[in-house]
Design brief:
The protein has a single domain (2-82), classed as Arylsulfatase, C-terminal domain, CATH 3.30.1120. It is an alpha+beta fold. It has one helix and six strands. 20% of the residues lie in helices and 45% in strands.
């Protein structure tokens, strides 16, 4: 079960719209999930990332199943749209 523990909106003109922290099964806290606006103004969820030595960005947390990715996206976007 996923629960959005905190959602922080970012008020600026960038594509980054919010940060979220999500609790998974009341046991794991994932911090730094991002809500991002695409070029067509649709919103999507991006997992936390860290910049590598060569300048590329890598996810620090990865969801392995499409079902988990879908649930994460739905819960975070629902929290973003209701706050």
């Amino acid at each position: 079960m996923l629960e959005v523990a905190r959602l922080y909106r970012v008020e600026n003109d960038s594509s980054l719209k919010a940060f979220a922290d999500v609790i998974v099964d009341e046991q794991v806290l994932i911090k730094g999930i991002r809500v991002v606006s695409a070029k067509d103004d649709s919103l999507f969820v991006s997992m936390p990332k860290q910049k590598g030595k060569e300048g590329r960005w890598y996810e620090t947390v990865s969801l392995l199943s499409e079902e988990a990715k879908q649930e994460m996206s739905e819960r975070v976007l629902e929290a973003y749209n209701t706050e």
